[in-house]
Amino acid sequence: MKRKASEFQSLKEILGSYDLDRKKYITREFQDYGLKLAQELGDEKHKSLYIKLAKTLARKILEEARIFVKDAHQVKNKARLFMWKVKMLKNEKKKT
Q: pTM for the full model?
């Protein structure tokens, strides 16, 4: 059954759509961003790396790299492409 755009969803339906793992304690915004980034790239094994990047790097660099990967077609390893683009953007920033 599909809902119309104007209908409200119950709180149970909204929370049911999220994968809430009780082992995760997310208290900061950068932690949430890092976890979402790891999920989007399909690299949840290295979620602590993405949390660290979200904490230490400028959000502009991470967003540009994320959008670059999102726009790429037929990518075998999204995480590798993301890290390559982050490296390029950091080197670009150092030059200026």
A: 0.73
pLDDT digits (tens, 9 = 90+) for 54-84: 999 999 999 999 999 999 999 999 999 999 9
Residue 8's alpha-carbon distances to 3, 33, 58, in angstroms, are 9, 26, 36
Long-range contacts of 4-9 (CB under 8 A, 24+ apart): none
The amino acid present at 53, given as its one-letter code, is L
Task: Return the structure tokens found at 68.
Answer: 């670059």
How far, CA to CA in Å, does 43 sit from each of 10, 36, 57, 96? 31, 10, 19, 31
The C-alpha angle 91, 89, 52, rounded to 5 degrees, equals 100
Give residue 74's region: left, alpha or beta (phi > 0; psi -120 to 50). Answer: left
Q: What is the pLDDT of residues 22-44, one digit of tens each?
A: 556 788 899 999 999 999 999 99
